[in-house]
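Q: Given only this backbone (141 positions), what sequence would you predict?
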């Protein structure tokens, strides 16, 4: 997918640290200092299954490696910017440091429906507009 078609993030107070790290080509997640739980997406408190609800959150840099949990192929998108490139793959990536932390990702370098659950992936960063980078995942051997 051409970079100019990708959605451009609009950081808010909670997500700004994540997007700032992406602009430095670093992948970070949140870590709760009360229960040591990693989480993504960023939130204002420890959230999700098994969370403690604490607002004592910090960031932690992760290696940017993981595995494909599962994937779908989008044949009829409602996102106008993606209509020109459909069909396309969307995968759920389990982070190596904690399989409970998952990223929803497009894997454009792969043919449609040619992904394998369990395949190893790593993050790379692409510039969508001047100065704004986003994470994108690719299959590695």
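A: Predicted residues:
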């Amino acid at each position: 997918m051409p970079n100019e078609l990708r959605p451009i993030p609009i950081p808010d107070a909670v997500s700004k640290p994540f997007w700032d790290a992406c602009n430095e080509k670093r992948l970070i997640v949140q870590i709760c200092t009360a229960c040591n739980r990693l989480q993504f997406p960023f939130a204002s408190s420890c959230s999700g299954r098994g969370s403690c609800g604490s607002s004592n959150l910090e960031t932690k840099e992760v290696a940017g490696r993981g595995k494909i949990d599962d994937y779908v192929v989008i044949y009829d998108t409602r996102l106008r910017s993606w209509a020109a490139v459909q069909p396309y793959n969307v995968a759920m990536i389990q982070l190596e440091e904690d399989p409970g932390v998952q990223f929803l990702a497009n894997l454009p370098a792969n043919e449609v429906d040619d992904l394998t659950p369990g395949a190893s992936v790593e993050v790379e960063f692409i510039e969508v507009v001047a100065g704004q980078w986003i994470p994108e995942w690719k299959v590695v051997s």
